[in-house]
Amino acid sequence: MRSRRMGGKPSDYLRQAWDLDDPDQVSAIDELPLWSSPFGLALLDTIAYRPNLSVLDIGSGLGFPALELAQRLGPGSQVCALDPWEAAGRRLTFKLRQTGLSNVTVVQDTAETMPFEDASFDLITSNNGLNNVQDIETAWRQCHRVAKAGAQVVVTENLPESMREFYDCLSQVCTDLGLDGVVTRIAEQIRSKRKPLDWTLALIRRTGFVVVECRQQEFSLRFASGTAMLRHSLIRIGFLDGWKTIVPEPDQGRVFGQVEDRLNQLANRQGQLRLTIPFVCIDCHKP
């Protein structure tokens, strides 16, 4: 039996865009509980905690894990929170004022153009951030440049199979509608956003780091329906705009409408909709 959408117009979420330069909208985002924390907890468990460290956190966004690192390492350590996102930097600065932390510096810049001296940091972290830069090889070479000899580098990133339940559904809908070009673009987008683990490890070693440990883990995002998933703020802020670029605008209504229907049917059969997020935590050091 064909499922019914559970409230809201079929395309309402396609029109309701988030403005990531609007301070008021940015202030409403709390990225920690749902998305960042599963990656971040693995990262925080991997760090070798010592006092008086100089730390660089790449892709700090709204402040996690930079704020947590600053508190766990104590006032003798200094944490630099690096991110090009201006509105998030303002929000992080506000959080620093409210928490009274004085050992965090907010720097608005990219990982490819770090404004730091050579051999500046004892510890470099990136919680699902380095894999989202424009030029990942340049970013890793910059990490090697600014890391001290013996520095620890801990990064997390989600793997190509992330949200495979959604992508399988999107691919099937586009195949059924004869949108073969969209199916090709889906695979291209996944390759551009999430590199295979072997590729990443080869890059890390090529830029001069030694991989100490590589731990693969997995968590799930669970929803009552596809309707709930597609309207969730995490999906609309972090993923929907990218998905829309795959599908030509004239086709977006019917494609996402059918995807929503199929995800609802999947949720009905399984009792819930589960999006699987495999990820890796990589611990390495500079010899």
Rough shape? globular
**Helix fraction bin:** 40-55%
Low-confidence stretches: 1-5
Biggest sheet statistics: 7 strands, mixed
Rg for CA atoms: 20 Å
Structure description:
This protein is of the alpha/beta class and 287 residues long. The chain has a single domain, classed as Rossmann fold (3-Layer(aba) Sandwich), CATH 3.40.50. Helices cover 47% and strands 21% of the residues. It is built from 13 helices and seven strands. It has a seven-stranded mixed β-sheet, sandwiched between helices. β1, α4 and β2 form a beta-alpha-beta unit. It starts with 11 loop residues before the first helix and ends with a strand.
Concise synopsis of the structure shown:
With 287 residues, the protein is of the alpha/beta class. The protein is built from 13 helices and seven strands.
Please specify the SSE layout and strand pairing.
Blueprint: H1 12-15, H2 23-27, H3 32-46, E1 54-58, H4 66-73, E2 78-82, H5 86-99, E3 104-107, E4 121-127, H6 136-146, E5 147-158, H7 164-176, H8 180-193, H9 197-206, E6 210-223, H10 226-231, H11 233-238, H12 240-246, H13 249-270, E7 273-285
Parallel strand pairs: 1-2, 1-4, 2-3, 4-5
Antiparallel strand pairs: 5-7, 6-7
Helix pairs in contact: 7-8, 7-13
